[in-house]
Amino acid sequence: MNRTSPPASSVASDEIDLFELFHGLWRQKKLVVGCALVAGVLGAGYAFLAPKTYEVSSVLRPAAINELDALNRSEVYKLPPADALVKVGAQLDSYEARLGFFKSHEDLFKAFQKPGRSLEQSFEEFNRNSVNLILPDAKKSDSLSNYIRLELQYPADVDGVAILNGFVDYAIAAEREQVGADLKVIVNNRLTELKGKIDAARANYDTDKESKIAKLLESDRLKRAQLQDELSALRLQMKMERTNRLAELAEAISIAKSMGIKTPTTPSSMADATRSGSNQVMRTEVNNQKIPLYFLGTEALEAERSALQQRTSDDFTNPRIAEIGKELQLLDANREVEVLRKRGNEDIFLQDVEPLRAEVARLRSLNIDMSNLKLVTVDRRAQEPLAPIKPKKALVIALSLVGGLLLGLVIALIRHFIRTRREVVPFSALEDNSLSRRERKDDPL
After folding, report:
1. Using CA atoms, how far apart are residues 262 and 290, in angstroms rounded to an integer?
2. Least crowded by CB within 10 Å, which of 18, 135, 234, 396?
3. Which of 385, 372, 371, 375 lies closest to 164, judged by CA?
4. Bridge-partner residues for 151, per DSSP?
């Protein structure tokens, strides 16, 4: 049995003929151009009919040093210009500050308020999609990069310039009020601290004064007691001395009576009296021995004894008694204690409080005008934009044309491959039928 294979030209090739492909696409050029035109028209319609979105921005920079000089020279609140810019930036980025501005200027945000939404939900959409805070690159250390940029995107029916400028002014005013409130709290706390120190010094002074008075009075009481004891001891001593003197006088009177001595005499005189003679002799006796008391005679001794027995006080016999009386009289009133108790303005006697009082006076005289305090410099305020940022018409139309062209090419390619497939399949089936008939003729059976 003889079998013949089909010619090579009849076998369908799986390779793509680029020339044939290009020729097939060229035949469908109207379809490709039509898709591109339709997409371009749709893109143009979107570009001209879509809602327009505008963008405005404002730039803040640090204030001049002289703007914050009054605040910094107060030595109470230190706020360098860079820190003031950071504080205002934090206020601009604060959710609470943005919500507060949103609530206080509802007329500017009517376009964001939709039926069925609460005020907070409307603000959330505005805050999430419309406001953007841009800070300088932290890797840059030059002063030119020290700024804050605030951007706002808004639809055409919203006054974005008024919103952004108003919000910037609102944030600066809020931060200024916060700085003023902080300054007031710091000053009040400082005054309270100084008042506490002065009160402590006053309490310490009162304690010292009372302690000093107590010590003085205690010293007076001790001195008075000692003088009283000394006076009692002296009086007892003088009383015993008088008693002893009376005993001596009684003994001497007894001896004088027994010797018959009535008037004062001396031992030599008594010796001469026993001798007889008419010569008158004047004697001068020098004797280093004490003459016994009975030689005074009974008359003198009895007179002294009578005087001692009639004495009611011996104080005049000792000069120390008068000195003790003088000292006791002085102790009746302590003039230093009286002066301490009669002090009128005791604050002038406080120690180490002059600097504190000077600081209190300085803090109370602080008069910083916070309404004119310039925390930052608005380097650029928001201005009316010249054109919207969305949609970008040229870009939308160009992308639409390119997309339409690509879509047309894809459709043309699909149609070309479908048509080629349909042409190849019938030819292959015809070749298979012809081969079957030849094989039946050559078959002897």
Report:
1. 19
2. 18
3. 385
4. 57, 132
Please enumerate in sequence order all residues whose Cβ is within 8 A of that of 106, keeping only pairs 6 or more positions apart, or say none.
113, 119
Domain ranges of the chain: 26-183+366-426
Closest by CA position to 393, among listed 111, 53, 156: 53
In this prediction the pTM is 0.62
Per-residue pLDDT, averaged over 368-387, amounts to: 86
The model's pLDDT over 206-260, given as tens digits with 9 standing for 90+, comes to 999 999 999 999 999 999 999 999 999 999 999 999 999 999 999 999 998 998 8
| pLDDT tens digits along 90-102 | 998 888 988 888 8
3-state SS assignment for residue 442: helix
Residues in the chain: 445
Q: How far apart are CA 191 and CA 310, in angstroms?
A: 78
26-183+366-426 maps to CATH 3.30.980.10: no
> SS3 of 150, please?
strand
Q: Provide the total of helices (H) and of strands (E) in the chain, helices listed first.
A: 13, 4
Interatomic CA distance for residues 258 and 312, integer angstroms: 31
